[in-house]
Specification:
Strand order of the largest sheet: 3-4-5-6-11
Keywords: 2Fe-2S, Cell membrane, Disulfide bond, Electron transport, Iron, Iron-sulfur, Membrane, Metal-binding, Oxidoreductase, Respiratory chain, Transmembrane, Transmembrane helix, Transport
Shape: elongated
InterPro entries: QcrA_N, Rieske_2Fe-2S, Rieske_2Fe-2S_sf, Rieske_Fe-S_prot
Number of helices: 8
Subcellular location: Cell membrane
Helix content: 25-40%
Radius of gyration: 40 Å
Strand content: 5-15%
Family: Belongs to the Rieske iron-sulfur protein family.
Largest sheet: 5 strands, antiparallel
Organism: Streptomyces pathocidini
Length: 356
């Protein structure tokens, strides 16, 4: 007789009893049916279910994982701030890699892993793991089912120990609260911090005014009444990598007006023999001011028609610009060239939130 019999040869004594099947949610089947639902195996209690000391150890483990996540997030932020972008480190067997990228990857990975590991360990050791069986039902839930779901939810919340195990709850909140800071810190890469760069230009005391067309230093006799000349600071070359950034702040507009026609005392004091120097950058949205009317001493921005009176401190007389063009104080050095006597006394260009 063969040792491998057909399914029909299974002894009845090895089949689950009807009572055992009913207790575990199985469907009762006729005696001798080889395809009867065996039901769920007997529930095995975990050590944490019967030993509160073991449960406390698991609680401390979960709290430790959440705490490690918080520390890793803090380390992520510290690495982002402290490690230079061009720092290179040797990591075996990878080789030389960016120290910043390596630190950010490791710390963020640890932070996320510890949150996940803590949640998994919490679920596997402390939350209820009693097996339940439920029959399939129509998608539309009846009021009784809805009530049962809410009751099950409340029971699950109670069994999870979320309200009772405060150590886990508080450390989890701390880890989840700190992890998003990693993304917030990365917002710094939207651009370098401006610091006080918006308030200063390349103009300094003794910097010569260089004609932007001839690239030669300007003398007073080079600027005639009624003319409009554009100048840049000495030493700023067009082929330098930061030329566009610097000229956008330092571009200068030079006009010679008869001293008797200058209405504002400070404008006259900061000029040289009627030669006045103003920022070329419009105070509306930063367009270059370039249209000059010599009879009225007005300059017009071609973008939105803001109009400034150069004989009266370059104040706005028309258009959307919010304030006058900043004036540069100028003089003449011992060699007879026009020079700056300092930087602009206020930020050039459009207003910004820290304008003072």
């Amino acid at each position: 007789m063969s040792e491998t019999g057909s399914p029909n040869d299974v002894s009845e004594e090895h089949l689950p009893s009807e009572r055992a099947s009913a207790e575990h949610g199985a469907v009762a089947a006729p005696a001798g049916d080889p395809f009867a639902d065996p039901g769920l195996p007997p529930h095995q209690h975990r050590v944490q279910d019967i030993d509160e000391r073991a449960a406390k150890r698991s609680e401390r483990t979960v709290a430790l994982l959440f705490t490690l996540s918080m520390l890793a997030t803090v380390a992520f932020i510290a690495a982002y701030v402290a490690i230079p972008v061009d720092k290179s480190v040797y990591i075996f067997p990878i080789g030389h890699i960016s120290g910043l990228n390596f630190a950010l990857g490791v710390t963020l990975g640890v932070a996320l892993f510890c949150i996940g590991a803590g949640a998994v360990h919490w679920a596997r050791t402390l939350m209820s793991d009693v097996e339940t069986a439920d029959d399939r039902h129509p998608i539309a839930a009846t009021p009784e089912v809805k009530a049962k779901v809410m009751a099950d939810f409340k029971q699950g919340a109670a069994e999870s120990g979320f309200g009772r195990r405060k150590l886990i709850r508080n450390t989890m909140f701390g880890a989840l609260a700190l992890v998003p800071l990693s993304g917030v810190v990365l917002l710094r890469d939207l651009g370098p911090l401006p610091e006080t760069k918006l308030r200063h230009t390349l103009w300094r005391k003794g910097k010569l005014l260089v004609n932007m067309n001839t690239h030669e230093p300007l003398r007073p006799e080079d600027v005639v009444v009624g003319s409009l000349t554009f100048a840049s600071p000495e030493g700023l070359e067009e082929d330098s990598h930061d030329f566009q950034k610097e000229i956008a702040k330092a571009a200068l507009m030079i006009v010679r007006i008869q001293p008797d026609n200058i209405k504002d005392k400070r404008t006259l004091d900061w000029s040289h023999e009627g030669i006045v120097a103003y920022s070329k950058i419009c105070t509306h949205v930063g367009c270059p001011v370039s249209l000059y009317e010599q009879q009225t001493h007005h300059v017009l921005c071609p973008c939105h028609q803001s109009t400034f009176d150069l004989a009266d401190g370059a104040r706005v007389i028309f258009g959307p610009a919010g304030h006058a063009l900043p004036q540069l104080r100028i003089g003449v050095n011992k060699d007879g060239y026009l020079e700056a006597l300092g930087d602009f006394d206020e930020p050039v260009g459009p207003s910004f939130w820290e304008r003072g």
